[in-house]
Specification:
Length: about 230
């Protein structure tokens, strides 16, 4: 579904990613893990067209997208839920969700998707007429993810969805991601919580200082002495 081949990215003259390559197969749950500042968010920003690589290519469904604009990439079927639980505070939960469906013309489909989101995140249905600013951190993250899903993406990209949440809320968000994957949506996630996420994913990539240093099944990476020492403190 997604093929990232040898991309390198700079912010001004500062190198952030160097010769990064990885792939995501349809139906997979894939994670890119690494410490803060490794370049994980930049990978998602590059795929979604917010920044462009100065070398390398990105193919989505066998079509090059490395030079495409963000709105074109959304229309092709990629939704990006950025770090920070960014929602529209002065709009209601329902309005926030409907904005996520702005690429869809079929109103019956939009209504059906809205109900699916309410089933996946019951708190959003309960509070659908409340403004975004009234939500807790965990509820805001649920809304951000649901808004991304309103576009019915083929690929959902999540940037640190558990960041800043309590362990209980973090677990709920990760469980929701599992349900989303079971429903058929392919997921690419970047995370700092290496142990929790590698237990769940089909494929994992370890990013260090802008380079992929290790890849494999989540269970294989967790068993790696290098990963255990570097990220798990074992």
């Amino acid at each position: 579904m997604l093929k990232v081949k040898g991309i390198s990215v700079r912010y001004d003259i500062i190198p952030v990613l160097e010769d990064v390559s990885f792939s995501v197969q349809e139906g997979q749950f894939v994670a890119i893990v690494g410490s803060n500042g490794a370049g994980k968010s930049t990978i998602l920003r590059t795929i979604s067209g917010l920044v462009h690589p100065f070398q390398g290519s990105i193919d989505f469904l066998d079509e090059p997208i490395q030079a495409a604009k963000p709105y074109e990439i959304v229309a092709k079927g990629i939704s990006h839920v950025p770090e920070g639980r960014r929602i529209f505070d002065k709009m209601t939960i329902r309005e926030n969700l409907l904005i996520g469906a702005h690429t869809k013309d079929n109103q019956a489909e939009v209504r059906n998707t809205l109900q699916e989101m309410f089933e996946l995140f019951p708190i959003l249905k309960e509070r659908q007429n409340k403004k975004g600013e009234t939500l807790s951190g965990g509820e805001r993250q649920q809304l951000a993810i649901a808004r991304g899903l309103m576009a019915k993406p083929k690929l959902l990209m999540l940037d640190e969805p558990s960041l800043g949440l309590s362990p209980i809320l973090s677990k709920k968000v990760i469980q929701a991601c599992e349900e989303i994957r079971r429903s058929g949506t392919t997921i690419l996630m970047v995370e700092q919580k290496v142990t929790e996420i590698l237990k769940l994913v089909d494929q994992g990539y370890v990013l260090q200082r802008g380079k992929i240093i290790r890849e494999g099944k989540g269970s294989e990476l967790l068993a790696s002495d290098t990963i255990r020492k570097a990220y798990l403190g074992l």
